[in-house]
Amino acid sequence: MNTNGFGSNILVLDGKNWERWSALMRSLFCAQDVSDLVQNGFEEPPANATDVQRAAFKENKKKDCKALFYIQQNVDNQHFEKIAKATRSKEAWDILENYHNGGEKVKQIKLQSYRRKYEMMQIEEDQKVSDYFSKMIEIVNLMKNCGENISDQMVVEKVLRSLSQKFDFIVVAIQEEKDVKAMKIEELQSSLEAHELLVINRSSERSVQQTLQVQTTKKEGNYKNFKKGKGKTNWSNNAKSKAENKTESSKRGSFGKNQNKKKDFDKSKVQCYNCDKFGHFADECWFKKDQKTEEANIAHEGDPDAVLLMAATCEEKMKGEEWYLDSGCSNHMTAHREWLTNFDASKKTSIKLADNKKLASEGNGNIVMRSNFGGKLIIEDVFYVPDMKCNLISIGQLVEKGFSVSMEGESLKLFDSKKNLVLKSALSKNRIYRCNISSDKMMCMSATINEDVEALWHLRYDHLNYRSLIELNSKDLVYGLPKLNAKKSICEICVKSKQSRLPFVSDAPKRASEALQVVHSDICGPFEVPSLGGSKYFITFIDEFTRMIWLYTIKLKSEALEIFKRFKILVEKESDKSIRF
Predict the structure, then answer these.
(1) DSSP bridge pairs for 382
(2) Cα diameter, the chain
(3) Structure pTM?
(4) Among 145-154, 211-220, 249-258, 534-543, whose mean pLDDT is lowest?
(5) Which pLDDT tens digit goes with each residue over 302-328?
(6) What pLDDT was estimated at residue 14?
(7) Residue pair 455/466 in contact by the 8 Å Cβ criterion
(8) Is it the case that residue 299 has pLDDT exceeding 50?
(9) More exposed terminus of the chain, fewer Cβ within 10 Å: N or C?
(10) CB–CB of 457/485 below 8 Å?
């Protein structure tokens, strides 16, 4: 439905968008010329009103109904119930405004929260300037709605203080060249977005140049391998001296000619110098022996007494409690003899690294750790290498022992055989996984403590039956719940809690053989809501033989004796019997 070009259903109020909804509705009220009626309302005409007053009242009534319709049309069911009985737009608007804004105390509490968010706002490294300004303006508007007086100068100064280091140059330029006191928020945002766009363009151009440089270096390396593979030393030296005086295009041209010559040559009897296979030259080989990386040391083969190792390069300053999780390391290794239990000094061996250096292993043992999740992790067959600079955990050896590893996103998770989470490690800056295990969590124990996992989860789920626990695991309804087996033992607490009481005897023999021989009495109260007579208690008298009941209301417990005397006189006269004490 449209009215004068404006849609009635602009934005629905759902309890979370009051500030935006109220601003849009005020604009709509102004456009429809009903803002004054919503804010101030209108008065009923007097009994002796003139025709002009009646016409004005009729027009105001029509506009007020229109404004009330706009309010009712743009709220959800929950808010509509609050204003359903409102007959005027001012009444409905005041109800919604009081509900969301509250009193002055509520506004002060909200203002304190908004002030804290405003003061702690800092732009993140990967956050865009437009997103940061949107959050900043949103908080500023919320503070203004609570009565805070914030000028553009305060917002501009706050933004300049909270920018990251990459905006230092533009911040200095703005403070030196422009008047911060007279600067608008939009002007500051446009300047920072222009600087951000310039930085992004420069970084993209730099990355393209680096990519081209890497590709050029690879081509030059292949060119040298081709000369080395052919074994023509004099020709290679002459070609190298000529290539240094030529441009990149001339190098590509000469390389292309050599490739054409090799295409005409029969390669079926040519043996590659890299992989020792027939059918291709060394520069065409996929396997490159000369390629090495800085962060991976490749294991050497050929020495039967050496332990093959591929480990991440350790940092210079290492903490003794840090362990590196390595998928290429063949065995666990540490330089801490005091951590090992069941140590066997007879199992000595040597370890060869990528640079042909050898480290001596003086024996092996077991290490028991307590992870951050409360579980116990036993690492068996850990080599004691005194010259090691870091502690290594072999993922392959853990998999052989029944553990499982999950790598998702930038985290590595280690699970035991029962799918219990044991360790969790985040990816570091140099793309390796490591975990910190402090010395007070390291336990030198020689035996494993077998925990009753079924009983533990039975207690965690408030003594839920084992059949339901197994069903939760089989249907994957609970993340982290291990696979459980049906437990045959009995939980003593469950047995005691489910034990039923013996029923009361319903056909007990009566003690009374006549009326008023046994009378039961009780007082009940006090009640929060008194009776019409102001009583908060009532007292009952029940004759056991006739099951007759008498009930009296009393204001205080102290009135019970007087009520009993009245009751005694009454029943003794009616029954010609007496109450025995």
Answers:
(1) 332, 365
(2) 145
(3) 0.30
(4) 249-258
(5) 344 444 444 444 444 445 567 888 877
(6) 81
(7) no
(8) no
(9) C
(10) no
CA–CA distances in Å: residue 437 to residues 94, 432, 480: 60, 16, 22
Q: What is the edge-to-edge ordering of all strands in the sheet holding 537-543?
A: 519-524, 537-543, 549-554
197, pLDDT greater than 80: yes
Strands (E), 490-536: 519-524
- 3-state DSSP assignment of residue 46: coil
Query: What angle (nearest 5°) sits at the alpha carbon of residue 382, between those of residues 381 and 388?
Result: 155
Q: Which of 296, 359, 290, 363 lies closest to 327, judged by CA?
A: 296
The vertex-145 CA angle with 144 and 146, nearest 5°, equals: 90
The two three-digit tokens of residue 146, written as one number: 């609570």
| Residue with tokens 């109450």, as numbered in its chain | 579
Contact between residue 89 and residue 64 where contact means Cβ atoms under 8 Å apart: yes
Distance CA 128, CA 408 (A): 27
- Contact between 266 and 279 under an 8 Å Cβ cutoff? The reply is no
Q: Which range has highest mean pLDDT (105-109, 467-471, 517-521)?
A: 517-521
The 3 state secondary structure assigned to 340-352 is CEEEECCCCEEEE
**Which residues lie below 8 Å from residue 451, measured CB to CB, with a gap of 6+?**
none
pLDDT band at 559 (very low <50, low <70, confident <90, very high): very high
Pairing of strands 306-307, 349-352: parallel
Eight-state DSSP code of residue 85: T
Q: Which ranges in 360-461 belong to alpha helices (H)?
A: 395-400, 453-460
Q: Please give the angle made by the CA atoms of 518, 522 and 528, to the nearest 5 degrees.
A: 165
Distances (CA, A) of 457 to 460, 469, 474, 479, 493: 5, 8, 15, 13, 15
Under a CB-based contact definition with an 8 Å cutoff, are residues 352 and 306 in contact? yes
Contacts from 79-84 at CB under 8 Å and sequence distance 24+?
A: 79/13, 79/15
pLDDT at 221: 52
Please tell me the predicted confidence (pLDDT) of residue 210.
Answer: 54
Q: Cis peptide leading into 503, omega within 30 of 0?
A: no
- CATH number, domain 306-443, options 2.40.70, 1.10.3470, 2.40.128, 2.40.160: 2.40.70
Do 420 and 403 touch, CB atoms closer than 8 A?
A: no
User: What SS3 class is residue 288?
Assistant: coil
Strands (E), 209-265: none
CB 389 within 8 A of CB 335: yes
Sign of the dihedral defined by the CA atoms of residues 236, 242, 244, 249, in that order: negative
- Predicted pLDDT at 530: 92
Record the tokens describing residue 32, joined without a space.
């429809």
Length of the chain: 581
Strands annotated E in 371-436: 376-384, 391-394, 404-408, 411-415, 421-426, 433-436
SS3 435: strand
Cα–Cα dist 100/115, whole Å: 19
d(CA 100, CA 337) in angstroms, rounded, equals 65
Q: Which amino acid appears at position 158 of this protein? A: K
Helix, strand, or coil (residue 524): strand
Q: Which residue type sits at 430? A: N
